[in-house]
Design brief:
mainly alpha, about 70 residues
Length: about 70
């Protein structure tokens, strides 16, 4: 399970709820969750704002930021 999907499920939202809120189709949001589509910075910010998080906390691989 991807991190984004895990966050959505932990917060009790459906794919459709998130998609509508950020202004994309449910199918497109599903592709983002399943890592079949890359996300633009603008969309990453919208998704992060929806979950009251920072984009880095969702999309940045923590292994890249540790030394």
């Amino acid at each position: 399970m991807t991190k984004l999907k895990k966050i959505r499920l932990e917060n009790g939202y459906t794919l459709e709820q998130v998609a509508v809120s950020i202004g994309v189709s449910t199918a497109y949001y599903s592709m983002i969750e399943n890592e079949k589509r890359r996300v633009s910075y603008e969309l990453a910010v919208k998704i992060a704002n929806f979950f009251n998080m920072k984009p880095d906390d969702i999309f940045l691989n923590k292994k890249l930021t540790t030394s």
